[in-house]
Write a structure and sequence with these properties.
Layout lengths: L5 H29 L4 H20 L6 H26 L6 H8 L5 H29 L8 H26 L20 H18 L9 H13 L2 H8 L5 H7 L18
Helix pairs in contact: 1-2, 1-5, 2-3, 2-5, 3-5, 3-6, 3-7, 5-7, 5-8, 6-7, 7-8
């Protein structure tokens, strides 16, 4: 079993946590200035990139260089694309309806409530999920065969997320389609190709980290990400917001909820 530099890894955690805290504090200050806390969504991917970059620097001379570089590139490509996409989408926009609903019941200061209910929980989740990458940075075993399906799964997720986001942006850009439901392209096979893509990316990153001990012990990190996307704040909140849109119930009945599968044929005689 390869040796794991536990002391060096533990010494790196305050630095990655501190870097993340600085990023979230800056994001919070910007949100207060703009009176729009949905800027946190744009900082989400950037937070993973920052933690990964700090961990990469601190693991020099400790972890396997091939795995370190691979994890850095995979997280940077995914996180920067996501942050740029969300940031451009939000330019000149208004507060996301999810945050409007959450902060509508804020007791006392709206910003203080957002700090407790948005930034702190998301910061903790981000740090916990990133442990897969942080542990992988310090793993000393050389890259093996398990990393290959990990990279392929990451690639599948990146394609689904990128293409799904692009198809949705093109759909929303057409005024004639306002108020309708996107049910073509990747959205024909899953109601959430972007969330599925995120889940596949982090499952792939886990396999790259789990290729060497003790990366396999971080399985709860991608599990939390996937649960959040599929069962907590991703899919459920999006479908709740879309539930009143004409045709969305029919879309739910005919399209798989998360994993991409062939569209389901409607039962004969079912009322539309």
């Amino acid at each position: 079993m390869p040796h794991f530099p536990l002391d060096a890894f533990l010494s790196s955690l305050p630095w990655t946590a501190g870097g993340l805290a600085v990023l979230l504090a800056g994001t919070f200050a910007l949100a207060v200035r703009q009176n729009r806390h949905s800027v946190m969504d744009a900082a989400w991917g950037l937070g993973f990139v920052l933690v990964t970059a700090i961990s990469w620097l601190l693991s020099a001379g400790e972890g396997d260089d091939g795995r370190r570089l691979l994890l850095l590139v995979l997280v940077a490509v995914w996180g920067l694309r996501l942050s740029v996409h969300i940031g451009l989408r939000a330019l000149g926009g208004h507060e996301d309806p999810r945050y409007v609903d959450l902060l509508a019941s804020a007791p006392g200061s709206r910003n203080a409530y957002a700090l407790r209910r948005v930034y702190l929980p998301q910061g903790l989740v981000l740090f916990f999920v990133s442990l897969t990458v942080q542990v992988g940075m310090f793993s000393t075993g050389s890259l093996g065969w398990v990393a290959v399906p990990g990279v392929l799964l990451w690639l599948l997720g990146a394609v689904f997320e990128t293409v799904g986001d692009r198809q949705l942006a093109q759909f929303k850009a057409d005024p004639a389609r306002r108020g309708t439901v996107l049910s073509t392209g990747l959205w024909r096979y899953t109601r959430h190709p972007n969330y599925f893509g995120d889940a596949a990316v982090w499952a792939g990153l886990f396999l790259v980290a789990a290729d060497s001990w003790p990366g396999v012990l971080t399985v709860l990190s991608p599990a939390l990400m996937i649960w959040t996307l599929a069962g907590k704040t991703g899919k459920p909140l999006t479908e709740k917001a879309m539930s009143g849109r004409p045709g969305y119930q029919e879309y739910i009945e005919s399209t798989p909820g998360f994993l991409p599968l062939p569209p389901q044929r409607r039962a004969p005689g079912r009322r539309r």
